[in-house]
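Quick one: structure for this chain?
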Amino acid sequence: MKYNWTISVPALSLFAALAMQAGLRAQEQPAIQQSKATPPRYTVTDLGTLGGTYSFPGGINNEGWVNGTSTLPGDTDQHAVLWVPGQKNPIDLQTLGGPNSGSLFGLNGRGQVAGAAETSDLNPYGYEFCSFLGFTDTHNCLPFIWRQGVMTKLPIVGGYNGSAQQANNFGQVAGGSENSTPDPSCLPSVVLEQTPVIWENSKVVPLALIPGDVNGFAFSINDLGQAIGYSGAGLCASLTSQIAHNVLWHNGKIVQIDLSGLPGGASGLPSQINNRGQVAGFSGVPPGLGGQAYLWENGHTRGLGVVYGTSSAAFGINIEGQIVGQSCVDATGECHAFLWSNGNMADLDSVIPGSVAAVGINDLGQITGALVTSAGELHAFLATPAHGGTDDESFAVDARGVPSPMRLSENVRKLLRGRFGTRGR
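Got it. Here's what it folds into:
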């Protein structure tokens, strides 16, 4: 089946630069070999929403808890959300006083959810910092960590905005913060530069950039304190193949991940790092324009190929090195979720009908992603490997059910364009 929907990792600064271009155009890329495998069987749960027509997960921990973002009734506002097994309704994580909040990267085993939430204050320069979350206003947006019903604001290094991305099991949090320096590439408009950071013991610690770069963000951090993210050019710089460098920070040192041998290489984004130091990500920007999902480990980068269309992007990796993501047809937005395991890529749409992206996988093999419902809505799902049963049973549905997929409604398409498209300034 075909589903016109493309996700991109919230690249913040990187997509701000992309937004300034006259348009995003697909470029000719080397052909990518498709790899096929038979996916496991799953019991699939539609996780529902906070009352709106849209929800999207950030990740999943080993307890099966799923965090993410969902719209409220009317789809005007959206809040960070947590789905806990055994609880009938999702937990609304609320905001820091503004209308919106969101969480796009996975939670840790302690139930800590990181994200960004709007305050009641408006940005004095009139730009949207958190448009990567789908917000369409100019409220200031601050990083938070949530646990057991309490949302705690995290400090920033300067400016007015920041975003927390992921917390490890020791409470270290990866993310980014504005600093107080105007980005020279955006003059005469005032847009503040962004610094990759780690929060530890309620203190913010800036991370180094590659010499010559002026912006960056950290996306994921493992229990060894290794963080991955990007170091890049000015927010308003012209799009070039070197606009972003995939980097790993450890013990104060930067390791640059080499994507030059991959389709759409040189630029791209890392998505998640596991406790073995393996990194999943994608080459090419954005992933729907000829790039490829990759696995980086021990200084070597491996392209994972595609399972549908001509491009792919990896978003989640577990301790076993299993990777989930999305495979798409270039420039059309037709996408399927995939699972890569033991060198083979499987099309999850064949066993989870309507699944357009998979973003998280825990060490038990449970997967969370997004699927299209029969009403044209986009909902987060939880897929648990199904054991037993007959060999021809390819898709098991739990009591809540997963309806047959159809195309997205225009309302949900509008939400996705705002969240995963560009950052207007």
